[in-house]
Amino acid sequence: MHPKIGILALQGDFAEHVQVVKRLKAEPVLVKTPDSLASVDALIIPGGESTTISRLMKKSGIFPLLKRLVGEGLPVYGTCAGAVLLAKNTGDARVRPLGALDISVKRNAYGPQKESFEGAVAIVHGKARGRVIKGVFIRAPLITRTGRKVAILAVRKENGSIHPVAVRQGNVIATTFHPELTGETLFHSMLKELAERRQNEQA
Amino acid sequence: MIKGTFRVKSGLAQMLKGGVIMDVTTPEQAKIAEKAGAVAVMALERVPADIRAAGGVARMADPEVIKKIMKAVSIPVMAKVRIGHFVEAQILEELGVDFIDESEVLTPADPFRHINKRAFKVPFVCGALDLGQALRRINEGAAMIRTKGEAGTGNVIEAVRHVRTIAGQIKALKGASRTELKQIARKMKVPYELLRKTVQLGRLPVVNFAAGGIATPADAALMMQLGCDGVFVGSGIFKSENPLKRAKAIVMATTHYNDAGILAQVSRGLGEAMPGLEIDALEIKMSKRGL
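ok -> structure tokens follow
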């Protein structure tokens, strides 16, 4: 049976994630309530406004359940705002993150929208190591600290410095850019593998 | 690294989907909007209802007002320019505004042309009341479309008219031959390829929000059920009795637009909505501006 990949559909580009999940032959499930969250094998937190999604997660009763499920091993992948919401630290009282990833982030670190860009991302971990993909960064956050248990999956080189743009800690993956806008399936495939593993464990 | 590509510009619009963009005139209002869950704010000197009441020429807001609002919030800040006024747009881009609305709510500056939006790194949203207008704006470089509706009226009928008109026109072209589409594209003054792509997708090829007259959570959910990707609320929030409560309710209604239980719950006890206006009684129909 195809794994059920939930996509948090409170606000943001969830429809774009649905397309990628379909292409990977997994079953997409839109998640707007705690009920629909309980039945999925993995979850994607899409791009959008982290302040808005944070508020709606709380209002919809999803926050405490999701926090518990991630802690129990539910595979979760966050892009951009999703990465902010998974972080331990956002340095911003307006966003209440899940704290599932031991990283610190700075929201909108590149400046206003005119500084948003497309640029090269180098994969530095796993099977795809050495590949260079295109990343779309839209009012993107910056990962300013990674904990010891966090693996850096991809980086960007800028002005002589190298910083992480994709990370993973156990069952939690985050990218500060949007693979769902370019059709890049690398990170979604990773999530699907984790979802299949969880499906087998629970069967 | 490339900045300001169409993918990056239309990408921000994609991130706003399922959200509510609220008109604000002060940093305090902007903070209320952010707290309520707005995905962006539109920085203005006056909301459309007051522009209507004041009369005279309505122009881009004072950069001082816009800067203060930008400082107050972390969500994207949009601002309006007059139709065709590319210098107002240059100023807003310089200020670091995240999105520009080339808007019929302000007095048009150019009787012949809209702004060449491809020349900017900052994305543009434009109003449309039919498919031809929407595709002309997209062809000029708009990264997002909204219905024109009739701003400042608290009357949703024109927004409904515009979203139904556009959807109906796209549907009617399904199955049309290449020759027919070419003829229609010529009539609309848009490239054949853009029209063909739109018909194939069965919707506009960019994000499409509702705007102009949305005043209640039910209005927002109505526009979402009619297929819009999100909503702008102009005068509807800060011209109402309890702006924070109404703003929160409209955000919830936009997310849970298909859940009548939630809609019933959030619609309760919001206080007075903004006073509305009959379209036939209007002296100025803003939606007639800009073809």
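The beta strands of chain B are 2-3, 20-24, 40-43, 77-82, 99-103, 124-128, 144-147, 207-209, 231-233.
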